[in-house]
């Protein structure tokens, strides 16, 4: 079943008319009619509300992805990852590629996350302001937080929203989001070290410490910006860790 067919099925199952469903969503009944005739797709920003009105999960509105569709999505993601965000033309190509893909697969959290990340970058490009990419990135990340069952996607969205809200000087929202994240001692890489056999645990710990140092280096760059952050002490520490294991 297509998304439109599923909307019609669940609408009738609820005993709702197109007009009633449209009213619940603050839309015209023509919009609902077009969905059900497969002439258009619901905007991603209302899928959460649509699923609530129809009393179904977001996943229930999705048609099962075929092997071909899954392969196509993987191909699109690979094409997007191969494009360089720091080159204006490639940034625009990447944005267009992901936007078109999301129109075709409007409930793909993977595509939403990738597109939101692209929107978050390119602050030096005119499209960032003219197309209000900051606001669009925030909308997508917020939608992911509210609707995904994948903890990695959720926590990545939380992390990105912290950066984006800071750019808007919304420090209260940053604090609220940051407090929703797990404590550092509960994080996945730290716990995974304990799943390794004895002959691999040192390597696992070294990799984990390396990730922590990457985070510290990133924070130093923010702290000392626009001055050049001196990361030499971290380089010395990395070298010492490598030698000690």
Structure description:
It is a single chain. This protein is mainly alpha-helical. It folds into three domains: 3-61, 434 Repressor (Amino-terminal Domain) (Orthogonal Bundle), CATH 1.10.260; 67-181, Serine Threonine Protein Phosphatase 5, Tetratricopeptide repeat, CATH 1.25.40; 185-244, no CATH class. It contains 14 helices and no strands. The chain has helices spanning 3-13, 18-24, 29-36, 47-53, 67-81, 88-104, 109-120, 126-130, 133-147, 151-167, 171-178, 188-193, 201-224, 232-244. Helix 5 (67-81) runs antiparallel to helix 6, helix 7 packs antiparallel against helix 9 and helix 13 (201-224) packs antiparallel against helix 14 (232-244). The longest helix is centred in the C-terminal third of the chain and has 24 residues, at 201-224. The radius of gyration is 22 Å and the shape is elongated. The model has no long low-confidence stretch (mean pLDDT 83).
């Amino acid at each position: 079943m297509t998304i439109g067919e599923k909307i019609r099925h669940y609408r009738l199952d609820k005993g709702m008319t197109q007009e009633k469903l449209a009213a619940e969503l603050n839309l015209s009944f023509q919009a609902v009619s077009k969905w059900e005739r497969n002439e258009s797709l619901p905007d991603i920003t209302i899928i959460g509300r649509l699923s609530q009105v129809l009393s179904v999960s977001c996943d229930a509105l999705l048609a099962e992805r075929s092997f071909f569709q899954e392969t196509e999505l993987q191909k699109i993601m690979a094409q997007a990852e191969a494009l360089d965000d720091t080159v204006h033309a490639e940034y625009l190509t990447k944005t267009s590629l992901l936007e078109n893909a999301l129109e075709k697969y409007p409930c793909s959290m993977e595509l939403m996350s990738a597109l939101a990340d692209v929107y978050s970058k390119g602050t030096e490009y005119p499209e960032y302001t003219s197309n209000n990419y900051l606001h669009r990135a925030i909308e997508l990340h917020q939608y992911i937080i509210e609707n995904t069952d994948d903890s990695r996607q959720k926590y990545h969205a939380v992390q990105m929203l912290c950066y984006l809200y800071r750019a808007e000087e919304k420090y209260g929202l940053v604090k609220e989001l940051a407090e929703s994240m797990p404590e550092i001692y509960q994080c996945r890489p730290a716990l995974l070290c304990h799943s390794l056999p004895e002959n691999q645990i040192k390597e696992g710990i070294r990799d984990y410490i390396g990730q922590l140092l990457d985070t510290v280096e990133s924070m130093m760059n923010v702290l000392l910006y626009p001055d050049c952050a001196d990361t030499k002490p971290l380089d010395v520490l990395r070298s010492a860790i490598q030698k000690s294991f």
